[in-house]
Amino acid sequence: MDWQAEDLKYIWHPCSQMKDYETLPPIVIEHGEGINLYDTNGKCYKDVISSWWCNLLGHCNPRINSAIKKQIDTLEHVIFANFSHKTVITLCQELIKVLPKGLCKFNFADNGSSAIEMSLKMSFQYHYQTGNPQKKRFMALSEAYHGETLGALAVGGVDLYSELYKPLLLDVIRIDGPDCFRCPYGKCRDNCSCECFHKAEEAFKQYADETAAIIVEPLLQGSAGMKVYPPLYLKKLRELCDKYNVHLIADEIATGYGRTGKMFAFDHARVSPDIMCLSKGLTGGYMPMAVAITTQNIYDAFYDDYLKGKAFMHSHTYAGNPLACSAAVEVLRILKDEEIIEKAQKRAKYFNQIIKEKFLPLENVGEVRSIGLINAIELVKDKETKEPLDYTKRTGYQIYKKALEKGVLLRPLGDVIYFNPPLIIEEADMDFVTDVALDCTIKQLYQN
Ligand SMILES: *Cc1c(COP(=O)(O)O)cnc(C)c1O
Question: Are 331 and 317 in contact (CB under 8 A)?
Fold first, then answer.
């Protein structure tokens, strides 16, 4: 069977111009193991983007596999209103041990965007029910990404995804967020005082009265091109939110679960958000599941006699799915038993070092930035002025195609090449994937 042709007969792939598939047909994966994916011809691809940032502990991880197998013969799913099950309760018991202080009430969904929608509605309704019905707007940072459903898209700030749909979207207050590579204040992220934070202060002065919440991707704006900013920004934001009674929503969908070197990005700032959204790493990349976790204070604003009409009338059919929960429980156990994050942090130093050594000498590399195992290489036209490459050349995409031929799955964001591998990646694979990425970058930039 020609699996590629059959795929194209039926499938409209996400986030793709399907015409591109004429020259680069879909790669049909037969099986996976660790960081390796194998296609129907047996060719191996190193999955150093964790299959859209969700695979945490390798494909077909034996421990997660057996946890799910055990669950599937016990209970596959049950309605989650009025009903519950042991696996989801265990998950909350385990998760609360590692969450930032104060987060203690768990509301489940089945994908990241839905958790974002839920947190926006939750915040709005909280203020409505605590005497502030005028607080009905949201603030978000420039170049933010929070998902693709309409509410999530509205708080997002990446025009590539949202521009066209603007007529359908909420009117969000946009704050110029940190831009450390091209810092307008001429500072450097390792020792600045977040001079850019005055933009947030100005926005709060003007709009806090009508604002329910501000949502951020803490420390790392993924889709913006793996932009990294300092923890001080979150600390300041916490103070500002407290001062103005605005909720701080942490979108830890991409940053949670050790991606930044600690369990959560907020741990670096040692403050807690009012609502935290988790998804991607939550099940190790196995099952669609998400959760919005909040405080007793927010929960209490919804707690009353039924006829008061204060309940949070939000639901997803697959909320709390037991199979997903079984994977999620096992992920937490593996992280702990095998000291995954601590060990990954040690190898992260090596990874960052070789990437800097290999890429920084190139004339068109503007910056190598990293946090945890995530490393991003921003290609520019001019190192001095940091002028971007001509985006119409699709340099990142060309490098992607070359790397695929050599068995490495990169998928750059525009002209930012990045690695966001499963936390279990070993040094030999780090050597291999960075060699391939370097070789493809040089070929594309200088030998075409
Ligand atoms: C992936 C992602 C989302 C959306 O999650 P989906 O499950 O794709 O809907 C939201 N926020 C961030 C930061 C993400 O990386």
Answer: no
pTM check: above 0.85: yes
CA distance linking residue 329 with residue 85, whole number of Å: 13
- Beta-carbon contacts of residue 176 (< 8 Å; ≥ 6 apart): 141, 142, 196, 199
The amino acid sitting at 64 is I
Is the distance from CB of 285 to CB of 56 less than 8 angstroms? Answer: yes
Is residue 218 within 6 Å of ligand 1 at its C-beta?
no
Cα of 253 from ligand 1 centre, angstroms: 6
Shortest-distance Cα residue to atom 6 of ligand 1: 112
Q: How far apart are CA 347 and CA 352, in angstroms?
A: 9
Distance from the CA of 368 to the center of ligand 1, in angstroms?
24
Report the alpha-carbon distance of residue 416 to residue 397 in Å, rounded. 10
Provide φ and ψ at 76, rounded to 5°: -90, -40
224 Cβ neighbours under 8 A, 6+ residues apart = 143, 144, 145, 158, 413
Which atom of ligand 1 lies nearest, measured to the CA of 252?
13
Contacts of 277 (CB under 8 A, 6+ apart): 112, 115, 116, 118, 119, 249, 250, 251, 252, 253, 290, 291, 292, 293
Question: What number of other Cβ atoms are within 10 A of residue 105's Cβ?
Answer: 18
pLDDT in tens, 348-402: 999 999 999 999 999 999 999 999 999 999 999 999 999 999 999 999 999 999 9
* Residue 72 exposure: Cα atoms within 13 Å on the Cβ side: 8
Q: Which of 327, 295, 272, 288 is nearest to 114 (CA)?
A: 288
Q: How many CB atoms lie within 10 A of CB 369?
A: 22
CA-based nearest residue to 337, from 10, 79, 63, 42: 63
Kind plus residue range of the DSSP H or E element containing 307: none
Burial of 317 (0-12, 13-18, 19+ CB in 10 A): exposed
The tokens of 155 are what? 């708080």
Kindly state the average pLDDT of the residues 198-211: 98
